Amino acid sequence: MHSDLDQSIIFKIKKVLRYNRLYGPRRTLIKVRGQYHMASKTGFDGAEWINPACRDPDHPDRWVGIIGCGNFSFSNIAYYLGKESSRFLRATHDIARPQARSLCAFFGGAYAAGDPRKIIEDEAIRLVYIASNHASHAEYAIACLDAGKHVHIEKPHVISDEQLKRLSEAQRRNPQCMIFLGFNRPRSKLFERARDALEKEDGPLMVNWFLAGHSIPDDHWYFSEEEGGRILGNLCHWTDLTLELVGHEKAFPCTITAIAAPQAKSDFAISFLFDDGSVAGITFSAKGHTFEGVRETLNAHRGDVLLTLSDFKTLRLDRVEKKSTTSSFFRDHGHRANVINSYIAVRDGDNSKATSLQYSRATAKLFLGVKEAVDLRTPVVVNADESESLNGQDRRSA
């Protein structure tokens, strides 16, 4: 949310050392390189920049386009795709031309486009990763779907009911096209283990999240009315995770109640009562600099299973008298698995890895309901789709 390049040298060294311990040397290095990418000032004139270092721009392996070339695209999307295939990238676009050129050059793409339509109309591109500003995600996705392209849409995939309606219509119009959502945390190995343990138990769930997020200045673009604010920008990660635990076929109607101070933009307490009797709470706090990034704690209880997941690094599981603790060497938020899932699905033509229309609608309705509850300071009931049968398909099924 801010550049660490502006901090003191001692702060930078401490940050790098801490991130090396949390994420490993390679992730740390690409995060550092991403800061310099964001500071790049070298753009281009005209309709496109042709990368002179790309010797095979029309190679058949180059079928990925990226729209939105910020730090996330650089240090996550392109970074992980580059590990899967050195020739993955064909084209980039960003409204900030220096970032489009920088990402294209660093990852060996063929060209950077000044107009997104160049990517949308490029017949060599089969899959487009969309990581632009939030309000534009659905608009780009709809255009790509109507051009016959598969799309990976970073969160949030919509910022309004109207966008959700039009994106759903585009998905119905183009059943041959797969969509994938940028909710990465469900693909974390520790979260998968936690979910599997809870699914073996019967009865409703009790779920509680405590989250300490980055403090963002009041004039940050996240808070622009058209971008959806902190809830659609961040909190949707954990509404989606909660829906994963409950199951979208059991969730609706869902009653959402929000507590927030009158002028609060980043501090909320949200409660959910789902159709199957499951109850969830999400507390989100942003009150200063979180040196180690977002801090996340999940406590969940179903049947005989009681568990705690801390920062996607440590999972403690209690089942009656049996106790176990599992720790990963580094934090795993599922970024790599989620980015690569989309690429492999398109490469192999595997529709089973795509996000279903039913799940796409369900998770969007939930986070849009949370925003409404916070904005209105009144309970909101989110009902099941009347026109869609939420028939129990997994989010990764078409």
UniProtKB/TrEMBL annotation:
Gfo/Idh/MocA-like oxidoreductase N-terminal domain mapped to chain residues: 64-177
InterPro entries reported for this sequence: Gfo/Idh/MocA-like_OxRdtase_N, Gfo/Idh/MocA_Oxidoreductases, NAD(P)-bd_dom_sf
Gene Ontology MF annotations: nucleotide binding
Gene3D superfamilies: Dihydrodipicolinate Reductase, domain 2, NAD(P)-binding Rossmann-like Domain
One Pfam family it belongs to: GFO_IDH_MocA
Entry protein name: Gfo/Idh/MocA-like oxidoreductase N-terminal domain-containing protein
